[in-house]
Amino acid sequence: MPVTGECFCGAIKYQVNGKLRNARSCHCSRCRKAFNAQASAVAFVEPSEFTWLTGKALLSSYSNEQGYGLQFCKVCGSTLCTIYKDEVLQVSLGCINGDPDIEISQHIFVGSKANWELIPEGIKQFEKKPPSVT
Ligand SMILES: [Zn+2]
Ligand SMILES: [Zn+2]
Q1: Whole-model pTM?
Q2: How confident is the model at residue 122 (pLDDT cuts 50, 70, 90)?
Q3: Among all ligands shown, which has an atom nearest to the Cα of 28?
Q4: CA 98 to chain CA centroid, nearest Å
Q5: In the CATH scheme, what is the code of domain 3-112?
Q6: What protein residues have CB closer than 5 angstroms to ion ligand 2?
Q7: For residue 34, how far is its CA from the centre of ligand 2 (angstroms)?
């Protein structure tokens, strides 16, 4: 069964015809703002395996000068994915429907987490980038 996801209002839906990979949560101040939360929660996808099913015209994009950015719903504001040079790089785990059969394996940039966030014991943490970061 393919992994599917949608925004809060349901206008935008997508499908991933493959496995999600390398799920991670980044606690830096930029991700807190981009994902309106204590951290991001994303997983990598193969761009060729990702398809928008409905509502693509309602997507809004924001990219930095390096070509990294976000795509979100113009109507409800859900951050659906990260992009690199207009291709989908990671999907936001919060917008996935059902169980995508993956767990967050790395919590990164915990050195710059918000003071109000408590990180549970026993999870794999990195002060900054993990050595294997792509
Ligand atoms: Zn929406
Ligand atoms: Zn971050």
Answers
A1: 0.91
A2: confident
A3: 2
A4: 16
A5: 2.170.150.70
A6: 26, 28, 31
A7: 9
